[in-house]
Design brief:
The protein is mostly helical. Among the domains are: about 110 residues, no CATH class; about 55 residues, no CATH class. The chain is about 40% helix and about 5% strand. It contains twelve helices and five strands. The strands form two sheets. It has a three-stranded antiparallel β-sheet with strand order 3-5-4. A two-stranded antiparallel sheet has the order 1-2. The longest helix is centred in the first third of the chain and has 16 residues. It is elongated.
């Protein structure tokens, strides 16, 4: 059973800490959960841990911890389904800011039991910034730029190289020559960071990306299969 939660407050919150979203999902008031003091053994990405007396019962505490573990495992800057907001940085996922609507939608998709009714309506009608109005005479490129593409995140040079070197072999050379080849104009942000999506779009437009070997192998293998493979279609 849900506590006496101030739903008017929480339903108006666009972003929350991941642990706060999990508390709401499990019918707990985030404002009543008391975090334990950090110890010298705790690393920078650990926590948070909460006092047992914050919970109405051991069952409620266990349910919250299961929810937080599940949400933490599905929170990712790259492919969600729960996307941390703001710049890429290390630290406990549980403490990262996330869209409350994404947290609720995720648990609804998992068929998590006993989600408070107020939250289920938020998953159906998320509180988001209205999409920009696009002039019908705009070009296709303008329309694509106006379409929502998810969180706009930046990462540093080392992270960009580490994450995409396997599919973009010339990435280090291209970044060194970014001011001449147009990559800086397309994707550079600030002094050291890059918009990852824009950098990948630039690489794709310049045919810098390679096809994974597994994909090529799969295509080759498909062509050698007997004719009965076509029976799967239709």
């Amino acid at each position: 059973m849900s506590q006496n939660i101030d739903w008017h407050l929480w339903m108006g919150m666009r972003t929350v800490k991941l642990w706060q979203g999990c508390a709401l999902v499990t019918g707990l008031d985030p404002d009543t959960l008391m975090e334990r003091p950090r110890t010298s053994m705790a690393g920078p990405g650990s926590g948070p841990l909460f006092e047992g007396r914050s919970f109405p019962s051991a069952e409620a505490k266990a349910k919250f911890e299961r929810a937080l573990r599940l949400a933490d495992n599905n929170t990712c800057y790259m492919n969600g389904p729960i996307y941390p907001q703001g710049h890429l940085h290390r630290g406990s996922k549980a403490k990262k800011e996330v869209l409350l609507s994404e947290v609720i939608a995720f648990f609804v998709s998992c068929e998590w039991p006993e989600i408070p009714e107020a939250l289920q309506s938020l998953a159906s009608h998320p509180v988001e910034t209205p999409a920009p109005v696009v002039n019908v005479q705009a070009s296709q490129d303008q329309m694509q730029k106006s379409a929502p593409t998810g969180p706009r995140l930046s990462i540093n040079r080392a992270a960009l190289i580490a994450q995409h070197k396997h599919e973009w072999p010339t990435i280090e050379v291209d970044i060194r020559g970014a001011s001449e080849n147009g990559l800086s104009k397309a994707a550079k942000v600030g002094v050291r960071d890059w918009y990852e999506d824009d950098a990948m779009k630039w690489a794709r437009s310049k045919n810098k990306l390679i096809q994974p070997a597994s994909t090529a192998t799969s295509s080759s293998s498909m062509s050698s299969l007997p004719s009965r493979k076509h029976r799967m279609e239709g």
